[in-house]
């Protein structure tokens, strides 16, 4: 439990020093939120091992400050506080609070305080691997206070070479920069330039992780303002892409004013779909644009079922060849973007509790999805497949009902499998009555003989009930004669076989036993065969439904899974990370804040499908097969590292920005090594003394 709390503190606060977090947790008596408050609002000084790597501030001396000199005065951010953010909840929102650094005088401290020496940041950590990048391994991103969502989104976008090139190659003519007067336009340009600096560092830095504070501060500043209230995490992603789209539109307007079709963001991320249907008896059709396509998760087993449910609402008219819609509507994609993003809504509002809840049900998704069955150009073939699927599902439903009647047989409230019931009857008739002891048998014979008197009625048959009662009385009499006085001390205790006798028929002739046994065995065999046939038919129909769209004509437009954004937690709190497919390495990597580790499809399944624990995917990013092959071809043809070619192609100011940051890293390393060499050598403390020191420091 303690380790779990420490991990949550690391994710929320961005502080990585375990001893420091342990002390804060102990001071808060194990209360997580109190520890967060202590760490974020009490000006706690962290002896962090993994602190911010980008110094000085992103505005001072950066490429942004040089290319957009007035940005600093125009976009001076208000003090950091708490920003309400909610997770994606469909029609509802739920609040997740940012726990940031102390708000008082934060901006002034960043601008006026002297630059902190790296020896103050690295603490006592002598391992360079903890703060240096290894080769061309992708870099992580620092969590500066509940900003894991930003890291997951930006890493997923950065690992798209096409998007990366668009951002790094963005430029505006000087006259456009000077003529931009609106606050929104200047903010968007400033954000683009901060994103360029961040991407440049992610390409060429020698640090193990980068600090996104400057770009994040612009986002937060906008979401704090009264006119731009945003409440859920998906809205942050939408707003981020909207800003980039508006920024690219400024460049497009130079050539083609107000022509959004030329906007590279629109071309990369946006598609169109046609909606056809009937509303109040009137047919209609309309074309709409989409970016991130929302999908409801609840009630579906896999991604294709989700898409089918989103594309079809209502029922089809089987009487016409055109398969026209009786009521409801159908959607068909008319244009798919190279980057296809699905938002999975895993939250619903609980009316009884009055709060949103996360849906933890399992939802599977493939590494390759074929989009042909959702395209307008495949409409006729797909509608035929849908009708056939509908017919097969109806037939399978009837077979399942029949199988259910065998499995739950009976007319009363309790139902049992019919083959088992027949088997029980077969066991009953084959059971022999319990054996009677010789003495009891002799006494019973004497009693019967003494009571036997000739009568004219002896030859007449007696009703079954009378016979049963007579037999019972006879047996009772025999029992009491055999045991004239109830003396517990002299009576023989019952044997186990006598105490737990199985029910058995009183009298069964050999002919009756043979006949009934043959009938029951035959009936049971027939029923079992019928049930087996039903199960096989249901399996065959299910397989036909699963393979309905495996037609080669519907496998011409494949999309490959590029990234999976995962949320772990409940509706009102949690942590985000991303799994991204690394094309050069042909493997999945896990991007979890500053940590970037090699992963596998099996680990991705466990964390993303849901159903096992509180972690599940909330966003899926697919890329077209054409784009995927282009990326693979570029990586195979490059003799340099995956990023080195792009670093060499950076604009001069961004190259200088990266070189300056790497030079500063070396200076910080020298300062740290110098301080370490000046320290007086001390004996290695024992584990016991370390725990005592920690306890005293916590106190």
TrEMBL record:
Residues 439-451 have a biased composition (Low complexity). Residues 436-465, 480-505, 667-699 are annotated as: Disordered. Keywords: Hydrolase, Isopeptide bond, Nucleus, Protease, Thiol protease, Ubl conjugation, Ubl conjugation pathway. It is an enzyme of class 3 (hydrolase). Its EC number is 3.4.19.12. One of its GO terms (cellular component) is nucleus. GO terms for biological process: proteasome-mediated ubiquitin-dependent protein catabolic process; protein deubiquitination; regulation of proteasomal protein catabolic process. CDD domains: Peptidase_C19I, UBA_UBP28. Pfam families: UBA_8, UCH. Residues 688-699 have a biased composition (Polar residues). The keyword Manganese does not apply. InterPro entries: Papain-like_cys_pep_sf, Peptidase_C19_UCH, UBA-like_sf, UBA_8, UBP14-like, USP, USP_CS. Its main location: nucleus. It is found in: Nucleus. It catalyses: Thiol-dependent hydrolysis of ester, thioester, amide, peptide and isopeptide bonds formed by the C-terminal Gly of ubiquitin (a 76-residue protein attached to proteins as an intracellular targeting signal). One of its GO terms (molecular function) is proteasome binding. This is Ubiquitin carboxyl-terminal hydrolase. It comes from Atlantisia rogersi. The gene is Usp28.
């Amino acid at each position: 439990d303690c380790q779990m709390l420490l991990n949550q503190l690391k994710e929320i606060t961005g502080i990585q020093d375990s001893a420091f977090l342990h002390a804060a947790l102990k001071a808060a008596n194990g209360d997580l939120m109190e520890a967060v408050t202590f760490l974020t609002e009490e000006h706690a000084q962290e002896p962090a091992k993994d602190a911010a790597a980008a110094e000085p501030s992103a505005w001072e001396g950066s490429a942004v400050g040089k290319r957009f000199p007035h940005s600093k005065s125009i976009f001076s951010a208000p003090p950091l506080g708490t920003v309400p953010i909610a997770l994606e909840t469909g029609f509802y929102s739920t609040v997740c609070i940012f726990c940031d650094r102390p708000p008082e005088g934060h901006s002034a401290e960043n601008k006026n305080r002297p630059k902190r020496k790296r020896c103050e940041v690295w603490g006592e950590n002598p391992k360079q691997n903890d703060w240096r990048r290894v080769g061309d391994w992708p870099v992580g991103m620092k969590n500066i206070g509940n900003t894991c969502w930003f890291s997951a989104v930006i890493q997923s976008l950065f690992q798209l070479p096409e998007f990366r090139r668009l951002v790094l190659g963005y430029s505006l003519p000087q006259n456009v920069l000077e003529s931009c007067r609106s606050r929104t336009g200047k903010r968007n340009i400033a954000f683009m330039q901060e994103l360029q600096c961040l991407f440049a560092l992610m390409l060429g830095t020698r640090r193990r992780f980068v600090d996104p504070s400057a770009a994040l501060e612009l986002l937060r500043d906008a979401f704090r303002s009264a006119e731009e209230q945003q409440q859920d995490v998906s809205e942050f992603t939408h707003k981020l892409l909207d800003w980039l789209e508006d920024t690219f539109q400024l460049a497009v307007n130079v050539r083609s004013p107000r022509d959004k079709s030329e906007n590279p963001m629109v071309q990369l991320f946006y598609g169109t779909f046609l909606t056809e249907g009937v509303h109040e008896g009137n047919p209609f059709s309309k074309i709409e644009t989409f970016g991130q396509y929302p999908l409801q998760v609840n009630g579906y087993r896999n991604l294709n079922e989700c898409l089918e449910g989103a594309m079809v609402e209502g029922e089809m008219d089987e009487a016409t060849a055109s398969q026209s819609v009786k009521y409801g509507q159908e959607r068909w994609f008319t244009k798919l973007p190279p980057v296809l993003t699905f938002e999975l809504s895993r939250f619903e509002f609980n009316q009884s509790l009055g709060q949103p809840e996360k849906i933890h049900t399992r939802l599977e998704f493939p590494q390759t999805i074929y989009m042909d069955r959702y395209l307008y150009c495949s409409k006729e073939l797909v509608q035929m497949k849908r009708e056939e699927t509908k017919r097969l599902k109806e037939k399978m439903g009837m077979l399942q009902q029949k199988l259910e009647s065998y499995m739950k047989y009976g007319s009363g409230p309790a139902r049992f499998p019919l083959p088992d019931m027949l088997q029980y009857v077969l066991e009953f008739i084959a059971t022999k009555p319990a054996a009677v002891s010789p003495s009891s048998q002799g006494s019973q014979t004497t009693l019967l003989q003494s009571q036997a008197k000739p009568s004219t009625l002896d030859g007449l048959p007696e009703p079954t009930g009378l016979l049963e009662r007579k037999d019972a009385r006879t047996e009772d009499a025999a029992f009491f004669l055999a045991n004239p006085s109830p003396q517990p001390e002299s009576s023989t205790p019952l044997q186990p076989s006598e105490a737990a006798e199985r029910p058995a028929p009183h009298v069964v002739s050999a002919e009756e036993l043979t006949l009934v046994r043959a009938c029951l065995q035959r009936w049971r065999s027939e029923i079992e065969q019928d049930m087996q046939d039903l199960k096989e038919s249901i399996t065959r129909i299910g397989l036909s439904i699963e393979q309905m769209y495996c037609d080669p004509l519907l496998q011409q437009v494949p999309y490959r899974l590029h990234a999976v954004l995962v949320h772990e937690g409940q509706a009102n709190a949690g942590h985000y990370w991303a799994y991204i497919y690394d094309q050069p390495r042909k493997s999945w990597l896990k991007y979890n804040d500053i940590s970037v580790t090699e992963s596998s499809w099996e680990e991705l399944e466990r964390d993303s499908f849901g159903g096992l624990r509180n972690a599940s995917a909330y966003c899926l990013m697919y890329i077209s097969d054409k784009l995927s092959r282009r990326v693979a071809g570029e990586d195979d043809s490059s003799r340099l590292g995956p990023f080195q070619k792009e670093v060499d192609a950076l604009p001069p100011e961004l190259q200088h920005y990266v070189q300056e940051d790497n030079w500063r890293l070396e200076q910080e390393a020298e300062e740290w090594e110098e301080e370490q060499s000046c320290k007086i050598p001390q004996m290695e403390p024992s584990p016991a003394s370390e725990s005592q020191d920690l306890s005293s420091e916590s106190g």
